[in-house]
Amino acid sequence: MFPIVKFMNAVKKTLSARWPALHVVLGNESCDLDSAVSAIVYAFLLHSLQNGEEAVGVVPVLNIPASEYPLKTEVTHWLQKHGILQNSLIFRDEVNLSRLQDGGSLRVTLVDHHVLPPADAYLESSVVGVLDHRPLDPNAPTNERVTMIVEPVGSCCTLVAEQVMAKNPALLDPVTASLLYGTIILDTVNLNPAAKRVTPKDIEVASQLARLMSPPPSSLEVFQELTEAKADVSGLTCDQLLRKDVKVATGGGLCVGVASVPLRVTDFLGRSEGGRCLAEHLATQGYQMLLVLGITITQETVTRDLAVYCPDTHLREQVTSALVEGQGGVLQLAPQECDGVESCVAFRQGNVGASRKVVMPILKAWLATRTS
Predict the structure, then answer these.
(1) Where in the numbering of this chain does the DHHA2 domain appear (predicted)?
(2) What CA–CA distances, in Å, run from 242 to 60, 182, 259?
(3) Span 249-264, pLDDT tens digits
(4) What is the DSSP letter of 62?
(5) Using CB atoms within 10 A of its CB, is residue 184 exposed (0-12), middle (13-18) or buried (19+)?
(6) pTM over cut 0.85
């Protein structure tokens, strides 16, 4: 059994054991492949660096309820392929972070994000580390006790791999190297500059990881395998698609869901029963507005489009204007049909390199201008 699989098979025992402190490596709330693998491998690294006399428990936590794990089709596929099964994972609803916080025994490292959502703001005093590849947010922790590693690369796993190479390269057996490698390949669209995600560091780290596997992997085959797993939404309902990869932005009395779906928005809207599932999703999730970001990826092309669904016409027009004009029109939006869905506007996105990491700051800036 490979060491990282052995580590993961023991994390639930680690969680229930008595320790001077418990160190939780927490991924982001979308729990995409980058977030999940970053949390697992970085926790594995921290565990390996423990000093016997000062050892604490280290566990990765996937930041979704266990019931939503089957929605993360590329995550379930890639982890299972590497011997990490669902019953060895710890999900957010399986650990009481508030109780641990109250007991004074909690340490938290954030991976693949560096700002806690409002619902998790209480954890801020327990944050001791950050590892993220997004542009630094003005609301990021500034406490000197927080070790910040924030660098705009294509994949957080690039930064995780860099840390492993620097601190304990012996951990990079073929399984751990492959977990990281595949994630970097998916995040950077097979290291394709046209997708505007890859950086020289991603390319260098991926190359180093590939040399640790025998035979060396075909990056194209890995990319195709993971994109097919991610796009396999044939068994998902409209509501499940909206929960598959979602983040939430709040401000000015509004709660906005921002869901990424692995198909064109125009195709998604065609599955929405004339918008009925969108209205139901807003009601069940407590959103006032929903942004749906569509993407299709092949080795040759990336296409993006987006839709804004909001029953309030005034709010819909306001946020649409912000998205079209934000950051000098960086998204390059052009109107397209909404397939007859009411309370909805849709756009083709000319800047295919602008992911949700670009959309979210525009949305948050608009929310900050509102008063509740």
Answers:
(1) 223-367
(2) 25, 24, 6
(3) 999 999 999 999 999 9
(4) B
(5) buried
(6) no
- Candidates 44, 96, 89; CA nearest to 69 is 89
CA 108 to chain centre: 17
CB atoms within 10 A of CB 121: 10
Tokens 């266990």: give the residue: 66
For the chain, the first-to-last Cα distance in angstroms comes to 55
* Secondary structure (H, E, C), 278-322: HHHHHHHHCCCEEEEEEEEECCCCEEEEEEEECCCHHHHHHHHHH
Tell me the backbone φ, ψ of residue 12, rounded to 5 degrees.
Answer: -70, -35
**Per-residue pLDDT tens for 208-227?**
999 999 999 999 999 999 99
CA–CA distance, 201 with 198 (Å, rounded to integer): 8
CA distance 129 to 111: 8
**Half-sphere exposure in the Cβ direction for 229 (13 Å, CA):** 22
Question: Coil, strand, or helix at residue 336?
Answer: strand
